[in-house]
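Job type: complex structure
Entries:
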Amino acid sequence: MINLLKSSYGTLFEEALLQEIIQIGTFKEVPIGYKLIEIGDYIKSVPLLISGAVKVLREDKEGDELLLYYLEQGDTCSFTMSCCMGQTKSEIRAIAEMDTTIIMIPIRKIEEWTTLYKSWRHFVFESYHNRLYELLTTLDSIAFDQMDQRLIHYLKEKSRINHDAIIHNTHQEIAYELHTSRVVISRLLKKLEQKGKISLHRNYLEIVNL
Amino acid sequence: MINLLKSSYGTLFEEALLQEIIQIGTFKEVPIGYKLIEIGDYIKSVPLLISGAVKVLREDKEGDELLLYYLEQGDTCSFTMSCCMGQTKSEIRAIAEMDTTIIMIPIRKIEEWTTLYKSWRHFVFESYHNRLYELLTTLDSIAFDQMDQRLIHYLKEKSRINHDAIIHNTHQEIAYELHTSRVVISRLLKKLEQKGKISLHRNYLEIVNL
DNA sequence: ACGAGTCTGTAACTTGAGTTACATACTTAA
DNA sequence: TTAAGTATGTAACTCAAGTTACAGACTCGT
């Protein structure tokens, strides 16, 4: 356990803080697809990612989704932190993108540790910074890019996160995360295939040279 | 000075912190249209808004803008804070929406105060929370709403910020902040006028019952 | 009073993307 | 093996929004 923690946060946190995390945090292993946070949830603890990846989603009035970004090893969910502080409901949904290991830290420690540990303070600020930056990147992509560019970006990012040139998703699933329709995605994927950038198969596709 | 500060932050911060802010911060009065922060700037200090309002903008590759949100009395720019911490360049542009008074706090104090003052810590977290939330709201609007809804939202927000049912902007200026073209805005505004929701004039428009 | 510059209104066209409909192919369970 | 369910391919259509073009009205400086 302590080794797992150190492999992700060992260089980041001082020894005393690592010990506290081990003592107070609770390890949790969740399978792919597991819903960590639902919109409207009141949160009592903040997750630190040890391994795996988590996708963070936003929902519109009709209940359709939009992928905001992924969390990886060494990340934490700033939205959750932010919700905890304000005692407000979650604005987002978080789902394990693969089998994932996390440590849950109870809220009250989050603020306490900011007074005690410089490294924790930096971590918290750094997390907010990263999340603001990621949100901004997502917003750029939605506001300024056309769907073909967004799709390419999505495929690259998904491949990077999963360490796999094969994307194991149906066109419908991709369409859902990009908040568009299946037909549009099929159309654009077919164009990418014709350009030799990907190859299409049932239930998966392979990135050739995006 | 201390009175101005107290009127905005008096209930928020303890006396000792208020004194520090007065001692260390520098008051700055800027006119409408004044550019406080430019994309790519390295930031050495963080602004606290005393009065007025500041609009925060994002730029695309072509140099066109998109309004992200407004900062008001009692707000601070979390992006700036975030940039300061990470010693990175500004991702956004900030322009005074009206004549505005701010206090500039040097970076090094930002973190120092988080260890010393509980109220400051809360303020910083609260700011991040608010900014994340605002960004999310902007993203919702861009991802999920059509231009007519975005326009209505823009007009309402602008009216609220300026405490004025009259919007003193040309169609071109509105188009620019919504990242669309003047013709589209003229078209939609005309429809709103035909529905009796606004009245149009040269260089300004009036909100009747949006 | 005149011309240059600015602002608004509108028509006509183009295009990206969402929708509907249907055909074909693969998968799985009875 | 056969039917039902699921995934993909494609055509045809609609619509919001961006583009181009131009006219008319207002403003301001000389």
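Summary: Residues 2-143 of chain B form a domain with the Jelly Rolls fold (CATH 2.60.120.10). Helices of chain B lie at 2-9, 15-24, 78-86, 107-116, 118-144, 147-162, 171-177, 182-194.
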